[in-house]
Known about the structure:
- The chain is mainly beta.
- 11% of the residues lie in helices and 50% in strands.
- The longest helix has 12 residues.
- The strands form two sheets. The protein has an eight-stranded antiparallel sheet. A five-stranded antiparallel sheet has the order 1-6-11-8-9, with no helix packed on it.
- It is globular, with a radius of gyration of 16 Å.
Amino acid sequence: RQSRNDMASLDYIKIKTFGVETCWGIRPGIGTGTLKEFRFKSGLTVFLHNYHTLKPLASYNNGASPCFGFRFCLSGHTRLNLDCFKKSLIVKSGDSGFFYSPDMISSHKDMPETHIQKALILIEPSSFLPLLEQDLDSLRFKLNISPGSNAGVYEPYHAQGILTSAMRVILQQLFACPY
């Protein structure tokens, strides 16, 4: 089974796929730990990064699907490049963010000698927009599309913030959960 975003990297090895979960391990010599993907039929995909890097760790996403996303970083330092944005995003401990990307063609590079704990939630527009249908006018950004449409014609968007105490508690619970 291929990931919705076709994650590719020489630094990861696939360990297992079970139900909605796919787990990758970090190659020996690069680091230790896992990257887990939970892909649900509803159009929601959750990635949990929990590893320690010994060397810079890079991965590439070749997905052409538009998506909305939420990202949360408990620890680590990552350079994120999304083709639709003009400059790299630096994601570091204590950051959170919300974004829209017309495609997920991207790369990221985790810095060496770092414990990475990040969560990424991707939501397909066909699943996300119905949740907001009544609140679209009050959003701080404007979508160039009508609700219910699947045409990926939104403008790229990114907002960065900090992790709140509540976000931090929920993330720590996610990473401690044995599933």
